[in-house]
Amino acid sequence: MIISSPRPRSMAVVFMAGYVAFLIGCGRGNDTKNLILTGKITYKGSIVSGGSIKLIPTDTKIVPVTSQINPNGTYSVVPTGLGDMKVAIETESIKGQTGAAYNVPAGKQGLPEITDANMPKYVAIPGKYANEASSGLTVTIQKGKNQKDFDLTD
Question: Residues 103, 105, 75, 135: is their CA dihedral positive or negative?
Answer without folding.
Answer: positive
